[in-house]
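Intended use. Records like the one below are meant for learning the mapping from a protein sequence to its folded structure. Do not use them to infer anything beyond what is encoded.
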Amino acid sequence: MDPPPMTDPRALVAEATQALSAGPNPALLARLESAWRIHPNHPGLALRLADALQLARRHNEAALAYAASLSLNPMSFDAWYGMAGAQLALGAYATARDAAVQALGLAPNAEGARSLLAEALFALGEVDAAAAAYRRVIARADPPVRDAALASLAVLIPGSAAATHEAVRATREAWITRAGGAIRPLPQRAPPTNRKIRLAYMSAFFGARNWMKPVFGVINRHNRARFEIHLISDGADPTAATGYTEHPEDRLWQVKGMPNAALARALAAAEIDILVDLNGYSLAGRLGVFPYRPARFQLGWFNMFATTAIPGMDALVGDAAAILPEEEPHYSERILRVPGTYLAFQVPYPTPAITPLPWLTNGAPTIGCLGSAYKLTRDTLDAWTAILRAVPAARLHIANPTLDDPSNRADLLARLAARAIPPGRITLSGRAEHYDFLRGYDQIDIALDTFPYNGGTTTTEALWQGVPVLTTPGDRWAGRTSQSLLRAAGLDDWVTPTFVATAIALLTNPATPARLATLRSTMRARLLASPACDSAGLCTALEAIYIEGLAGV
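Structure written out for the chain above:
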């Protein structure tokens, strides 16, 4: 039975305004819903109902209630602000951006709304604009909003074309100084004797088979006679389905939600010798373990694209194609390089068979990308559309989960139309189960890279599905991950400083379809015979790094 309605909606609005500041309140939400059925034309009641629904994580209903409030009072800053938050939670980034712009039009100095705007801009690929918005928030906002903006900027900054190496390091150092404070390292221990080296890998993504191809290719091959393997997991367990080969002596830690200080003490108590971070800024908060120095040698590998700037992070692992020697002063860590590619991978789970070249059936080429939407920057779209304008027969295929939302699809089509590419030449696809997602490469003849932030997993998967990736050497680590993989695969001619001109030449050359068809049909065999899939060699190189690093502390 519904609770009795309030006869005075103004009193309920006043009560809700105060009570909801303390967090979710199911009883109050029920009263607001009951009152709204009786007073559907009260804008304040609709607003507070929307706030209560948002706190209850009922985001679709919250968005509808915010819309109802705005239909009654379109000049409500609170309603536009709430709408932006609800749409962000729903992944409707273009709608969230527009709502945040409306909120800022009513309150230009509302830095909380500007943070929502920045978050939406980043998700849509407007990374430089997002970075600029976050910088304004950092300069003007009160501490809680300022600190959250700094954390977000520290995550996205390697993908900002306008950010220099110096800016990346300075931003991340500012974040860790503010977030971590003065953490005192734990007492150092004596080197181990007469036991195996205790090697721990830390990740929130052991359950993500698409991301773990390089990781499990190494972990499965470790010499268990010399190393005791610990998997420190902030997410789903590693399984055979995600590529992990279970070993009876391996030890799995489930640590999701454990404070960094407690985890550091537990790692120290377990006498972990080597701690390898696989998260990077994909789980930035967990980097706070490293200043405690729970292990004797601490380093990052795999998900690193710039300096972490984290005290206690001794080294980062890359390769000669990814990190140039002259860039090393911009890192707080030592740079250690493996031969070949630091992203050498194995594909231990079922994937679709490689299909014939679609160009031969369609009579025209299709270029495309299945990378994340936040990598679709202005520079990327400018380059892709220059290619499309020069080759009128070519089509563009883009797929990523962000395109599930209609507002995001419309936004991307509008960005392309502004560059003179009509919707009829574009195919957009959204979220799919991983196997079906890989079928998207059945429609693509040549994959185009993104910049300044390249594909990593995306490049790996395109190649595995027989689709070569055209890239250009970037000005930063994040812009050279594809180069690392392509050179290791023996596909050096797909790395070019003249990205647009090379693509146009390929797409207009009558010999290209036959060349691509041959490459497509032989790609997997080529990869498996190359350093790109030499997980055993990468494991050997990493073990040597670990042993040498441990000996040096």
